[in-house]
Amino acid sequence: MSGEYAFIADLAREVEVPSQGTLSRTVYSDNRLKAVLFAFDAGQELSEHTATMPAIIHVVKGEAHLTLGEDHVEANAGTWVHMAPNLKHSVAAKTPLVMLLLLLKPGI
Questions:
Q1: Is 40 inside any structural domain?
Q2: Core vs surface per residue 59-89: b (16+ CB within 10 A) or e
Q3: Is there a smaller number of Cβ atoms within 10 Å at the N or the C end of the chain?
Q4: Which residue range(s) make up the domain with 17?
């Protein structure tokens, strides 16, 4: 990596899905963006919560059930979701899951 860019060749290889658990790892952070890679074993979940800033979920590998406000959707590799600040949401892994969460920090 250089100060001018960040490069990750394969997000799915940056984390190992834990057996019967969940792992999160920050892969990038600056004053505008925080990128957190999550790995969930099948059956694991991130319970309903909100974020104070806009956020993007990108499913890299696996299948999940997402709750977005009042909506329930199925997600798989390639699914992309933009969420407004304070939207209640949750993630439940149906299979081993790798997901990238992008938190969009307020401008300076």
A1: yes
A2: bbbbbbebbbeeeeeebeeebebebeeebeb
A3: C
A4: 11-104
